[in-house]
Amino acid sequence: MSRRKQTAAPVPATAAEATLMVGQFVAIEREKLLERLAAEAAIDTIKQKRDERLRELKAQAQPLFAGLKAWWEAGGKNELAKGRRSAEIAGAKIGIRLAPPKVKLKRGLKAEDVVAWLKGLRWTRAKDFLRSKVELDKQAVIKAVLADDHVAETFADRLTIEQADEFFIDTGLDEEAVAKELAG
User: Residue 1: pLDDT above 80?
Assistant: First the structure.
């Protein structure tokens, strides 16, 4: 698949043209920010309405669930399930099922206490129950390579530290100020 050529960018010939282009760029960036803020506000409104409706529906469903659970335990299972753990009724399956297993700590114990206890045990399987995530600390590598030539030589076959100049335009748009302006 061949690459598409990038359209030619207009290049200002004078400082006056550059000033005009920067003004246009800032106006576009401001419009992008306004569009994003307006979309986020609309999404927030939709989410708020959704959450309200879901709370209402949950409030309606909760007593029905509690009533059906009580009925099932009081004898509904004998009437419908006939020795099974569940039964079909009104297009739904109703019954009892095993929840997934979970670790429940004894009262007053925290996970950190169990971790410390396992680390202190002289049991070869203790490490099987502890998980540690090992990953490259890139910031530490950058700091060490830039500060110490010996470290840089050690890493030379595996990685390099790169830092390039990049062009930027700081529009100076304050998102909070624009949001307040939009709301006002």
Answer: no
CA 159 vs. chain centroid, Å, equals 30
**What is the DSSP pairing of strand 86-89 with strand 92-95?**
antiparallel
- Kindly list the distances between the CA atom of residue 182 and the CA atoms of 26, 31, 38, 172, 176, in Å, as whole numbers in the listed order: 17, 11, 8, 17, 10
**Distance set, CA 172 to CA 24, 33, 169 (Å):** 14, 12, 9
Q: Please, which residues have CB within 8 angstroms of residue 31's CB and are 6 or more apart in sequence? A: none
Euclidean distance between CA atoms 39 and 165, whole angstroms: 33
Rg (CA), the chain: 32
Once rounded to an integer, what is the mean pLDDT over residues 128-152?
Answer: 90
Cα separation, 8 vs 148, in Å, equals 44
Residue 135 token pair: 């990953």
| Residues counted in the chain | 184
Give the whole-angstrom CA distance, residue 12 versus residue 24. 13
**Looking at residue 168, what DSSP letter applies?**
-
Helix, strand or coil, per DSSP, at residue 107: coil
Q: What's the predicted TM-score (pTM) here?
A: 0.59
From the number of C-beta atoms within 10 Å of its C-beta (0-12, 13-18, 19+), residue 11 rates as: exposed
Q: Could you report the per-residue pLDDT of 14-35, keeping only the tens digit for each?
A: 999 999 999 999 999 999 999 9
Token pair in block for residue 42: 């609309």
